[in-house]
Specification:
By secondary structure, the chain is an alpha+beta fold. The strands form 2 sheets. A 7-stranded mixed β-sheet has the order 1-2-3-4-5-6-7. A 5-stranded mixed β-sheet has the order 9-8-10-12-11, sandwiched between helices. The longest helix has 16 residues. The two termini are 25 Å apart. InterPro entries: IMPase, Inositol_monoP_metal-BS, Inositol_monoPase_Li-sen, Inositol_monophosphatase-like, Inositol_monophosphatase_CS.
């Protein structure tokens, strides 16, 4: 891809792990996670995906997520809709937390203080009468389940831009909301997100959460 698009920039999980900076500039930028759900992949647990997002002028233009074990191809393009294997996606539209299935992921930090906050957030949602809270081990596929209407909301602290870029386009094009956990606009580099089928649901989730600080992708 670099040979074909020499003027384009690339942000990828493996490059970041090797020390490359994650800076989203106005240049055309590919944002890639070649294996989302690495732990699942190692254990042959069947929720593993490839995620590719594309941004121009710091605006997300399209996203592609491939569910490897089920051969499901999720796609979204700004202004053109979202699809899975050619069938249009639509979020659930649920506004009642007591009827909502909420998805999340644990995040990379496992120190006692962070785990306490993570479990506290789950407890807060369950006390608020969420119908269920689930962790499937792949943030990109969890977000695709939201886009397809199989889940009603998603939140996470500690996910990276390569986990979120493609899925953001797909959810928005399926009619959903993707925003910051503060309730403000999404910041792709902030390592935190709330997404839902409706703004009402996203706001309910955001208001219930305690912040877990993971810093920013563009400051690491």
């Amino acid at each position: 891809m670099q040979k074909r698009f020499p003027s384009h920039r690339f942000i990828a999980e493996e490059a970041a792990a090797a020390g490359a900076k994650c800076v989203l500039t106005p240049s055309p930028t590919w944002i890639i996670d070649p294996i989302d759900g690495t732990c699942n992949f190692v254990h042959r647990f069947p929720t593993v995906a490839v995620s590719i997002g594309f941004a121009v002028n710091q605006e997300l233009e399209f996203g592609v997520i491939y569910h490897c074990t089920e051969e499901r191809l999720y796609t979204g393009r700004r202004g053109r809709g979202a699809f899975c294997n050619g069938q249009r996606l639509q979020v659930s539209g649920e506004t009642d937390l007591s009827k909502a299935l909420v998805l999340t992921e644990i995040g990379p930090k496992r120190d006692p203080a962070t785990l306490k906050l993570f479990l506290s957030n789950m407890e807060r949602l369950l006390h608020a009468k969420a119908h269920g809270v689930r962790v499937i081990g792949s943030s990109t596929l969890a977000l695709c389940l939201l886009a397809s209407g199989a889940a009603d909301a998603y939140y996470q602290f500690g996910l990276h831009c390569w986990d979120l870029a493609a899925a953001t386009v797909i959810i928005r094009e399926a009619g959903g909301i993707v925003m910051d956990t503060s309730g403000g606009p999404l910041d792709l580099m902030s390592c935190r997100v709330v997404a839902a089928g409706t703004r009402e649901m996203a706001t309910l989730i955001a208001q219930a959460l305690q912040t877990i600080n993971y810093g920013r992708d563009d400051e690491k």
